[in-house]
Design goal:
- By secondary structure, the chain is mostly helical.
- Helix content is 70%, strand content 0%.
- The protein is built from three helices and no strands.
- Helix 2 packs across helix 3.
- The longest helix has 92 residues.
- The chain is rod-shaped and about 150 Å long.
- The chain starts with a helix and ends with a helix.
């Protein structure tokens, strides 16, 4: 029985020594496991922050692109307005829009001029009867469908595109 007690004591001592030696390793593994879990949480947090920042920047980029499209359309409209002004200047320069330079109450005063054709001075056979007024749009539509003016119409379209 004494041997059994000695064997039990030796086994208990060996178990205690083993526990004593293995305990730091177990603690270290537990500490590493906890640090890995904490590191995983930090990773997830940073990933979420980066994704939300990316989403915010994407929205800003879309807004900037939208503003750029609007600005491009405004620039295009300004170019069209500038072209219209150039065309109007060309009409006035050629004397083709003189009628716009005078008011209705001044028509008698300017009778016989290019602004208000009338009488024999303008060389018309109808004796200065009121001519049909048209807009440049109407003229362009007629020119597009008039075979005798097709070349002029196409040339005007090319100049407009440039």
């Amino acid at each position: 029985m004494l041997t059994a007690i000695i064997i039990i004591v030796v086994v208990v001592v060996l178990v205690l020594i083993a526990v004593r030696l293995l305990m730091p390793r177990m603690r270290e593994r537990n500490r590493i496991r906890q640090r890995e879990a904490e590191l995983g949480q930090r990773r997830e947090q940073v990933v979420e922050e980066h994704r939300s920042e990316a989403q915010i920047r994407e929205q800003r980029a879309e807004e900037a692109e939208h503003r750029a499209r609007i600005a491009a359309q405004e620039a295009q409209r300004e170019r069209a307005d500038a072209q219209l002004q150039k065309e109007q200047a060309a009409l006035h320069e050629r004397g083709m829009a003189d009628d716009q330079l005078i008011a209705d109450h001044e028509r008698e005063q300017f009778a016989g001029t290019s602004a208000v054709p009338g009488g024999a001075a303008d060389g018309r056979a109808d004796g200065g009867a009121e001519r049909e007024r048209t807009t440049a749009y109407d003229e362009g539509r007629r020119a597009a469908h008039d075979p005798t003016r097709a070349e002029d119409f196409q040339e005007g379209q090319l100049r407009e595109r440039e």
